[in-house]
Design goal:
Strand content: 5-15%
Number of helices: 23
Structural class: alpha+beta
Helix content: 40-55%
Radius of gyration: 23 Å
Largest sheet: 5 strands, antiparallel
Strand order of the largest sheet: 5-9-8-7-6
Shape: globular
Length: 502
């Protein structure tokens, strides 16, 4: 798949006629006769090709005067895979919009984070997505509003505020325009027997993804490396605390065959869109596994690994600065030792939170708090103390940005310039914090061992040369290579309780 798929009319018509769910989120079908827009997999009888037009985003459909289909609910489809595989201005802008930057800081704040003028950002988004940043943020607010209307008993005035609308009138007008129903009509369509969440601030929702999804390495990695107090595996769910713009939250994520069950407890409901976006990003739910696996399967030595367990995702993070700190703590030590180091920092410097279910106690310390730590209190070699201190100082001062807006090559170069940062530390941060799908770990011991076992070149230079054929999905190749080992990160901890990994 390539950028601008909505311009390939013949291909889009084929996808709609076959109701191919793989293309949900890549483009949207607007029907001229009914004035509604759908996802490609919409279950209704496809319209005649001459009545179809295609758009790159839900916001573009809305701007053109189309309403969301009540059957296929295109606003709930997985996001476009492009924004997590690209590092250009448009992709970085889309990641920031999903993180709520426009709602909090406006378009000038978005442009400032990206380092471009407002006009440049608006022009590029309009050219590629058919909608500017305000329209894209508005579409996201509408989706959040629908979610709250359908999953909570909250009064409409509270929903309007939580979804990011500036007034109840704007909320009512937007919902009616996008969904062709008023907020109260949307709620009235729900089954009368439903049992909405009654715990204040708690929401239960489904996170969609493109099939296949192999949960083993995804949840196995998160559970095996979980920092006590911040993360846990409990009763088939990965749970963790979230630092959010308006407060804090706790996410509980459970893999299901066709979705991820997500339960969010938030101190401020305005953080809902950001919490959803960060959970989706951590679980790599907007990936296109068919395209990824197809390319990796072309290598005859990787093909058996892909065929055995297709759909592996890259486990990422909800907090890029946190992961960078943990990567330094994990340098040249075991997984257990890294968790112990991180747990000590959490106990001493993390912010306490209340967990209604018990088990989780703190937010991971912010860079500002860690920058004030006396290095002499850190139980690690002096050289690693220097690495730790330099990193948290750079993060706290803003000299290094690891957020959704980060420019991958520039950030990698800045990290490599820090003392104690070699290729392995930089690349593991690129894979799991920056989200670079093409970052690679040719010096990793597990990767080299797997390569040797499979008959791939095992020296870093030779393996890097061989891996050129896997681009731009080398981070996914890392997951398949790691899976040849018996390390706990590769297995879904179905039977293990939180106490077993603490």
């Amino acid at each position: 798949m390539q950028n601008g798929m909505h311009t390939d009319r013949e291909r889009c018509v084929r996808a709609v006629r076959s109701k191919d769910a793989r293309f949900d989120g890549w483009f949207f079908t607007a029907v001229l006769t009914t004035r509604i827009y759908c996802r490609p997999s919409c279950p209704v009888v496809p319209p005649k090709p001459e009545n179809m037009t295609f758009h790159p985003s839900a916001a573009a459909c809305q701007q053109a005067g189309f309403r969301a289909c009540k059957r296929c609910r295109p606003d709930t489809s997985p996001g476009s895979p492009e924004w997590n595989q690209r590092a250009d201005l448009v992709a970085r802008a889309m990641r920031l919009i999903a993180d709520g930057v426009v709602d909090r800081d406006g378009v000038p704040g978005l442009a400032a984070r990206l380092g471009y003028s407002t006009r440049q950002v608006e022009r590029q988004l309009l050219a590629e997505l058919g909608a500017g940043p305000l329209a894209l943020a508005r579409a996201q607010r509408a989706q959040t509003a629908r979610l709250l209307i359908e999953t909570t008993p909250l009064p409409m005035a509270e929903i309007a505020f939580a979804a990011g609308f500036s007034s109840i009138r704007t909320f009512n007008d937007t919902v009616r325009e996008v969904f062709a129903l008023s907020p109260s009509e949307l709620r009235a369509r729900l089954p009368k027997t439903r049992n909405p969440a009654t715990t204040p601030g708690t929401l239960a929702l489904r996170l969609p993804f493109r099939a296949p999804l192999n949960p083993d390495n995804l949840f196995g990695h998160l559970a095996a490396t979980a920092v006590p107090g911040v993360e846990e595996w409990r009763d088939g769910a990965y749970r963790r605390t979230l630092r959010l713009p308006y407060g804090h939250g706790i996410a509980s994520l459970t893999p299901r065959p066709d979705h991820i069950a997500c339960r969010l407890t938030l101190s401020d409901l305005r953080d809902l869109p950001v919490a959803i976006s960060r959970c989706r990003r951590m679980l790599d739910l907007d990936a296109d596994p068919v395209a990824i696996d197809e390319q990796l399967r072309a290598d005859p030595l990787l093909a058996p690994l892909v065929d055995k367990a297709p759909g592996r995702r890259v486990p990422r993070t909800v907090d890029e600065a946190e992961f960078a700190v943990r990567a330094v703590l994990g340098q040249q030590v075991s997984t257990a030792a890294a968790r112990t180091h991180a747990a000590r920092l959490v106990t001493a410097h993390g912010e306490p939170v209340d967990d209604p279910e018990g088990g989780l106690t703190h937010l991971f310390p912010a860079p500002e708090a860690l920058a004030a730590v006396d290095p002499e209190t850190l139980a690690m070699p002096r050289s690693r103390r220097a690495t730790f201190t330099t990193l948290v100082t750079e993060l706290a001062s803003g000299a290094i940005h690891l957020g959704p807006e980060s420019d991958w090559p520039e950030t990698r170069a800045r990290l490599l310039a820090l003392p104690g940062f070699g290729p392995w530390t930089t690349d593991v941060i690129a894979i799991r914090a920056l989200g670079d799908p093409d970052a690679f770990l040719p010096t990793d011991l597990g990767i080299r061992r797997a390569a040797q076992e499979l008959g791939l070149p095992s020296t870093p230079a030779a393996l890097t040369a061989r891996a050129a054929a896997w681009r731009p999905w080398r981070a996914y190749a890392v997951q398949y290579l790691w899976a040849t080992d018996s390390h706990p990160i590769n297995f879904l901890p179905v039977e293990r309780k939180s106490r077993d990994i603490q």
